[in-house]
Amino acid sequence: MYQVLEDYKLIYKYESIGKIQRKQQHEMTNKWLKKESVNMPELMVIIGFMKENNNIKFTRQFYYKLIFPQICIEENKFNVDGLLFLFEADMIQAYEEYLSWKKSIIELENMVLSKYFNNNIVLEYRYERQKHWFEFSIHEVPFGVLYGMDCASLKQIKEMKSDLKEFKKLSLFLNKDEGENISYLSIIYDAWERYLISRDKYNGFKDYLIKNMIEY
User: Fold this and answer.
1) Which of 26, 50, 74, 129 could serve as 82's disulfide partner, Cβ 3.0–4.6 Å?
2) Which superkingdom does the taxonomy of this entry point to (predicted)?
3) With 70 as the cut, is the pLDDT of residue 16 above it?
4) What pLDDT, on a 0 to 100 scale, did the predictor assign at position 13?
């Protein structure tokens, strides 16, 4: 057993049952994170350790010290199994942050799917991510359609319409009932695109929707 793993295991040997114990574990974990370790285990050894000790808590510090650096090494060797593990562990966003957003979630998804074409875990993750993104894009309707935090430009709404077609394919593949939502999104996106082309004729997007009898 590697010492760095033994030390971590000792911290979480007992489940924290109160605020004081949790604080102590947090402080000990931060010390463990900063402590230099000369003999570091490889990724598969770490994953094996996690599976053998699935009764203990694996914190963000554990991933930052042991998992993420090893995945970077594996990634450079074009081995995406570590990335797949992060999707399985729901830690892919934390890894994106660890990389300082030099690679997007979409890129990381595509890297895994290039090897595991129809991996259900990654596709489900993509579905949930896109569903949330599309829902957010219309939460300011009737005042506008969002692309991120700002109103979508003409170029961006064209991209969004293309993305919506891909989302429809993904939903059908995963047997998700998104027909009604996709139809509504399509109507609103089309309306926003037409509004941007002729916005000088209207007193805002709401005015466009009303005058063109589009329900929102």
Assistant:
1) 74
2) Bacteria
3) no
4) 84
